[in-house]
Amino acid sequence: MTEQATGAHHPQPRARNGGPSSASVEHVTGAQSLIRSLEEVGADTVFGIPGGAILPAYDPMMDSTRVRHVLVRHEQGAGHAATGYAQATGRVGVCMATSGPGATNLVTPIADAHMDSVPLVAITGQVASKAIGTDAFQEADICGITMPITKHNFLVTKAEDIPRTIAEAFHIASTGRPGPVLVDIAKDALQARTTFSWPPTHDLPGYRPVTKPHAKQIREAAKLITQARRPVLYVGGGVIKAGATAELKVLAELTGAPVTTTLMALGSFPDSHPLHVGMPGMHGSVTAVTALQKADLIIALGARFDDRVTGRLDSFAPYAKIVHADIDPAEIGKNRAADVPIVGDAREVLADLVQAVQAEHTEGRVGDYSAWWRDLNRWRETYPLGYEQPANGSLSPQQVIQRIGQLAPEDTIYAAGVGQHQMWAAHFIDYEKPATWLNSGGAGTMGYAVPAAMGAKAGRPDRTVWAIDGDGCFQMTNQELTTCALNNIPIKVAIINNGALGMVRQWQTLFYNQRYSNTVLHSGQETTEGGPTGGTRVPDFVKLSEAMGCVAMRCESPEELDAVIAKANAINDRPVVVDFIVHEDAQVWPMVAAGTSNDEVMAALGVRPDFGDNADD
Description:
- Strand 12 (297-301), helix 14 and strand 13 (321-326) form a beta-alpha-beta unit.
- The strands form 4 sheets. The chain has a 6-stranded parallel beta sheet, sandwiched between helices. Strands 11-10-9-12-13-14 form a 6-stranded parallel beta sheet, sandwiched between helices. Strands 16-15-17-18-20-19 form a 6-stranded parallel beta sheet, with helices on both faces.
- The chain contains 24 helices and 20 strands.
- Helix 17 (397-407) packs across helix 18.
- By secondary structure, the chain is an alpha/beta fold.
């Protein structure tokens, strides 16, 4: 499996054939130096919008044959596109904006990338250095604004500092725990004359990510694995980012322990594998949620025990010892104390764990999980994922998403928005390979799907890319379909159109006595027909999409579903948008209500699982 296919994070190449040798020196402007630096670190795609402060950089970019610029329609789209590019390729995503509002429009995608540990470099123009701090036109302290949501950020006021800063930014973004780095460059630094030489010398005192785990901790973890009776491998997105999916499969099959993959880790372990028990969390499978609750050992790999997985933290996994492996030492013990803390890169941790477990097996110490698997299989059979077809014959959103997954070409990449459609896409599409599922996990950013799909397709033009979006999310960033149409980025978009902000509406149904305050999108008032009616479709997504250069279709009945999806899959020369009119009352199950214990997981509305064990085990 290639590193690109696994989404592995690695530093971008320092230089490419045809670049200047380390001894060559060129006389250039700061802006030319910036573009040359981007070429040398291997950036091939930049998503952005020009403006006054960053404009000097756009002139030499026009002459570059190695950096493609994609002109987006909103800076938020540039940021999410860079994230989608990074998630699909495993390389650093790059976005660019001007000062002031251009830069602040990047705040949301930067925060999103920070929460999901995405390697991102955001380059912003800044007012001239002498004007900084004077409230000059289009000035904003973007370094100060983004300090809590970047891995690091730089303010560059001297042209000679540009190559070193770009090299350091890419190094920081792509090594250790990946994350976003902001480079803010004053306009006069871009305009000034300087010299360019490559490679520059890094100056990063104190930045030394630990990748090799401690052998003693590895041996202790292996002993716990073979001693445990009810272990669970709790796999997070860090396994995908480390390119460690092959090692994960070896460890799982070696131990025979059940595997649960978080929302950010879908595809890190094949959904079809018999050891896979599903996704944990608020809307996880009953088996995955319960496995963690009743485990006596949790081996957390590249995961962070966030609240969506743990539910009420003080009642989470009460019987379990914790082995917690993460490349970020700040995550270990942050939410749940670790009995065996392991700091290191997931690939190296897993490879060492495999050897340590093999050594345990050689000594005759092999875990017996047979009773555990009898329980797990019983739960799996009793509480499978499922859905009901609407009684009025309208489209089920789950069926729509399931059929998209079943009819899509092999290796299709899926980017989901946030809400009900996100959870259905997580559940009802099978993810067999890493870097095929892109979503906004930590921040939960509505409007993520369309630009992220655009970035993924730009980075992996050989792949089919479907954006699974809701009608609420779609209305936040759909203007990037124009970008796709004009730049030959033929993504496919499924709008799961229930006429409402679906997940919020579900909470209003369950917890607010069906008082639907400001969640109906199609007419401003509740309907009784089970979905948006023809006369109240504002906007008309078909007409809107056609106006942006897309092929657009509408699907309203199960009978036409497969034919519409097949037609969408067959069109590959321009973006395709399908408006799926689905039942508005469909809900996401299973569910653990916010603030409650995972012990209170509901398999469906009014259905509390019975595990047949009144006594604590």
